[in-house]
Fold each of these.
Amino acid sequence: MVAEIRPKTGAQTPDRLKLSLAPAPASRAADLRVLHIGKYYPPYRGGMESHLQCLSDELNGMVDLKVIVANAERRTMKAVIDGVNVTRVGKFCEIKSAPVCPALVREIRRSKADIVHIHWPNPTAVLAYLASGHQGRLVFTYHSDIVRQRMLAVAFTPILRHALKKAAAIIVSSPNYIESSDILSEYRSKCYVIPFGISVDHFDQYDQKKVCKIRERYGPRIVLGVGRMVYYKGFEHLVRAMKLVDGHLIIIGNGPLREHLGQLALECGVADRVAFLTEVDDVRPYYHAADVFAFSSVMRSEAFGIVQLEAMACGKPVINTQLNSGVTFVSPHGVSGLTVPPADSGALANAINQLLDHPHRRAELGTKAKMRVANQFTVEKMVQRTFQLYQHIVRQNGER
């Protein structure tokens, strides 16, 4: 018998999860069939998509893995991407950012997976799973609540609760998010904290010549922001902050607010010191060229912030915002950077100036930031913990 590892109250911590699970026989692990269901898959860019690809790349081979996501067009396409079997199901339309894929029910039903792993928020995927009648064990990675689309959240919450009740486990990226989510707090006993991770080695490999060119072009005081130009990223506050900062701001990304942000930079008189880069193949030289990484999100739609990890892996201190989510779990104030109130351009500017004006403090926080990623947020730890959780779920099922 396997000892119960889930306490009656409180979420399961990563360390206890690791210590509590004995390895499953290799043959049994290799035969384990896992189906991941996400919204989209790279080259589509987004935090959920990056996480899904990273996790799939590493789990593939450890388990028999398949991925189902939405396609950008109406036809269904199958491909093998870096060894991972990916099915892009034809998309009919989008409702409140949720892809509607009529064939998704059929694709899930055809799957013979032992574990179905849904990446939430994705309401149509949950509906499709429930409609499919699939008998595999259900796992959620709960990336975030539905925050902005309040009507959708209200309408869908009963269905989500039904699915979470069926779930064998709910993976959450930080303990902070469990505490702040009205939904997750009801299912604490099913929650397992498995922080998202990145490849630290990948960010140690970069083109130094490109770093020098970036420094030559933008000068010695560079602030970097990375992310989609959408409402919850708070880039407008970062642009306004530059009125009080002697330096250059580079924002890498694209999105519906691109033109608005460019116009705002003109209105603030900082357009000559703010660069918007929408097409960057390799962001690593920019991380290494920057002095400070600014993470200016304003809503708890920002549940974690993987780009914080990327900057930290490059030895850069992070300036983030005090959100009721996992953002400060990634980079705590005074440990790997500074934390300021959200939507406060003055506070952002003050924090940026503190680090730009004090290179020793900046270097100290940057060194601690890199150590924090290496100790707590590696892809190896994330994959190991996820794999062990799968093993535990299968053993539990076999004992019933």
Amino acid sequence: MKTLIAPTPTIEWKNGQIRLIDQTKLPLEESYIETNNYRVVCDAIYRLAIRGAPAIGVAGAYACVLAANKIESDNTDGFLKEFLMKADEIGATRPTAVNLMWAVNQMKEKAASFSGDVKDIKSTLLDLANEIKDDDIDRCHNLALHGAELIPDHSNVMTICNTGGLATSGIGTALGVIQYAHAQGKDLKVHVCETRPLLQGARLNTWELKRTKTPFTLMTDSMAARTMEKVEIDGVFVGADRIASNGDTANKIGTYSLAVLAKHHNVPFYVAAPLSTVDYETDSGSDIPVEERSPDEVTRIKGVQFTIEDIDVTTPAFDVTPAELIHGIITEKGVAKYPYKESLEEQRNAK
């Protein structure tokens, strides 16, 4: 079977530059960031011009290449010292999504273990970044194949945040599963949570689903309970920014609420993510750092203030869904089941 990919590339490497679709401009404007400056990529990651755990992992790998290319030292030790500092800067851009540090650590380990000259190190780092991107495409492909089997014909599914091609180098994770099920010819409808405060569902999911002609309806996040009450939802499919070794899952704020609602309404709740999103060194969700964002993301839309000034605002970007609320974790190796400590470890060791 031909590898499943998104219709619009999220990340491309061309002529020594990285090219990213600027997701802050979507859906009203399709524009791109093209740069050979790693700090521009860091800024793009931080302000969510590029987002989604797998996508920022790939972007982080290419940012490491850009950082390496700007180092002028021909001395291997001098190059490595400067490169590791810049790589740490890239890895710290967003603390919750484990894929970013996963990719950056691979780049650091490759540079530290390489025995050639500086020119060869730089070339090898680019090769590794390309491998990380291709690996992400393959993981998303296999994940979609496994996940689509969980979606019956004539079904209604629900999702939050954007987990399609915009969030990865490939077809996506949770939304990729849904879109592949649609491509198989299954009659389905996607109930899209708008995903406050930055509206990734309203802005990005609708843009992707419209392009693939996948039927959907948009709703506010607070409509999820009523929708589950009135519509026979066959499954909730969400992505992940970090999965602890016990299955506790950090994802976009509002995911935990959906999991609780799904449990109450007897709706299967699935997490879809590559194994690169599983942090086997983190025992539980209580150990996952949760990024706090700017209050402006809650009090403003497109720069327009709609609340009174000088108020206290809570701005966690993520929440953590307990493993016991998750019906299954879909990865490129299959569908892991509770207890996840054992099943995710089995997947890690599977050939």
Amino acid sequence: LHPDNIELQIVLGNFYFRQKNNGQAELAYQKAVDIDPQSIKPLMVIGGFYGATGSQDKALQKYEKALELQPEDIRILHAVARQHYRMNAREQAEKLIANILAKRPNYFPTRLLKSEILVRTGQFDPAIAILNELVEEEPNSARARYFKGMAFLGKGDSKMAAADLARSIELNPGLIQARLLLADLYLRERSYDAAQEQCREVLAAQPENYQAGLLLGNAYLGQQKTAEAKQAYEALISLDSQNPAGYFRLGMLQQRQKQFDAAMVNYEKALSLNPRLMDVFTNVVLVHAARGELDQALRKCDQKLETYGEDTAVAAIVFNLKGSLYLAQRKKKQAEAAFQQSIETNPNFLRPYYTLAKIYMADKRQDEAISQYTAVLEKDPNQAGSHMMLGTIYEMQQRYDLSEKHYRRTLEINPNFGPAANNLAYILASQNRNIDEALVFARKAKEILPEDPNVMDTLGWIYYRKGFYDNAVAELRDSLQQLPDNAIIYYHLGMAYYRKGETDAARTTLEKALSLDGSFDGADEARETLAKL
């Protein structure tokens, strides 16, 4: 059997690895190393094995041992660089990458690794520049196409992203992450059949892929196939009963069908698994509100604050919910106090600013509020929150010059103040001026507040203004999922559909906007567009 033959031990290790017998595989690979500790190949093979099975420290140890034996070997240097990156030691990885490319500027694997790091750190344009070269050199590189698709996705160019992701799958049908990204992209564009096709391909290869099952359920729901969606979400719960996502999505489906008792059971189960899931808790409050159980909803808010009040992100959301519940009870003073607490707890939480400003406007107290915030700024001009509140009130009064001034001042004080970046971007876009600057601010807001539906709306509207209608539709649909009764978002989405040439969708969406509110800013354009349709 030639037990001292390195190649045979590696073949044996590969056999065990394919059989998922990792213990025997490790023994065989280590035997190959022991036969000749000065041989590079078994060190690289066992390093790859450890990397694939999650023993990252051991992988690095083996690669570095190989590097000690051959310190100038580019392939080994590349393996060490990639391993550092896998272990989140990006700075060390980048130093090694620079070293490799200084010696071999055209070394394809390291240029690909460099582009991957650029993509994952949001440096999309330089990544695309490298990836274009790589694709030209090796048109059949599935990974180069995959990362190029990711880069375009990061830039918001969904058409280019879809093309590159689809090509990567053609080149390597087993590229699971590419299929999942493409499925998610199709889902956002309402290409539900295409999304389902990608999910099924993933599930055929990996029946226990949770993300594919979740996307499949969401695609069914998008087509109003509620029975299929329910089955998909129940399958997720069976697959992993400790993952709250399946319970949450099933609860949302039941809430939509007004099966409030069943929805509440699933929401409570999701919260028992992760009590900090605030989208789930928000829906619990909404179910109580739909049943008219406002006092019970308030009690649950107070209980959440008692337990998790030290978490400012959680507390701000709960105070905002309390404010909305008090408004439903017509208790404006308590509502105003709750919204103020929400802002004070987390100034980067966008929603309470507008609700508070609406209270001032409804009560004709905006001048009083302006005087109060101005007095605060006279004592301390660097109060970012007061500038933000003034900007919001002036915006609602359509005094956009003053609003812009205060938003810009907010960002001078705190460049990472997401709500100010969002609102400034929206003003610039709505007035159709400085669109490129608006896009910079909107992307900044998206970095800080990636899940905020108002930020999605702003970014979508800017994409519309720039003529990127596919991207606009994707962002605006995501926004509507969280704010399903917002007339302005329906208006923005309807205009994007109109420019895309999807006349039926445009008509339905614009009619929905006007049915919700006939006097929003843009209602006249919505009516004019409907007349053309």
Amino acid sequence: MSSGKRLPILLVLHLYGCATFTPDGGFDHVEKATQRYIKQQPVWAKTAAEKQASLEKVSVLLEKPLAVGDAVQIALINNAQLQATFYHLQIAEANAVQAGRLPNPVFDMLYVKNKGNFNIEQALTFNILALFTLPKASAIEKKRFIATQNEVVLQVLNTARNTRNAYYEALAARESVHYLTQVSESAEATAELAKRMRKAGNWSELAKAREQVFYAEAALDLTRAKRKLVLKEESLTRLLGLNNRTAFALPKRLPDLPKSYALLKEVRAEDFAKRLDIMQMRTMTEALSKKLGLSKATRLVNVLALGPARVLEGSRNEPYKKGISLSFELPLFDWGSPQVKRAEAEYMQALHHSASLAVHAASQVRSQYSQYQANYAIAQYYRDDVVPLRRRMLRESQLRYNGMLISPFALLADAREQVLSVNSYIEALLDFWIADSNLEMSLVGEPVGVMIMNEGL
């Protein structure tokens, strides 16, 4: 074969045989995309040295009570489930590289010897059809790789959101235990006082029983709060990737309510188009469209092997007869209609998923913002009205008690109500911070499981 004829073939082999891996497995995109939304940086520790460096970073962050940003950073470094998610990048990139390479040539040989006569057939064949289908197959896997990158970004941001929520819940649970302990101690003192007054004949059995029941209920509430604290701290521990909940310290209270809540501008259609989950579904739909085209193109023949061959018949001294070998599938039983139908169904399914996701995204943002506004108003009402009024009532009761105008039971009751109002404010403040975290995530998107859905690609 002349050099002029060999050149196109060599060029094709070079283009399709040299697909390579990126230095970081596509993680650079994940890092940059993540930092557009949060300040913390994900870390993919693959080597022993990188893992040791990650442990040292975590140890430094654990030396002081965790701020919410510190907790998120630890999770993005140390969460084993998230580290496992990062390897989806390597899997998807390996598939993309594999799809960009030609299949290896096949060497066939037949050797028969009978009384000094030989029948030797040798052939070296290439799947010629792959030269035409490889661009589409490669494009499909590249789309899948992009979709996987976006999915990993969403998983990182979702882990950050879950860590923030678990952090706020643990703080709120700790504060609740603190204030419910005060309520329980107050109720215990009241019950003991009622018991003594009943013994002295200055209190009715009904009044005594009422105070004892309140104390019993307060003790139960405290027990439930302690149980909840353990559960919330363990939830945070799992997200941080730590071995036990004593490995970290938390501040004493939740962050204060902001002076004003954020105003959400009208979200336009192009804003929704930038949501990562919508971009992800669009990428997957494009990949399925390409798969549908490939399925139609190869419905009858998907293997066409061609290459040089030679045959020897007779004694070993006989010359080889040279020719070509050609092999392909005969569509006798399978005409390719099932694979086309499946590809069509997957494509239409993705289109409807995309339409559903667009509707869900708009509704989700509106719902989350409504909760955000309402929870801010509720927490603000407790902070500015309910808690100050309860505090003022307690001061007035204290003055009246000092003037012997009310009983100690009335004073203790007002003290309990004041503490309970603070506890209600803590719950309202927690609801606000959870809503704030969820609102941020609603503007980014939710994981849609493309790494699972793409298994059909």
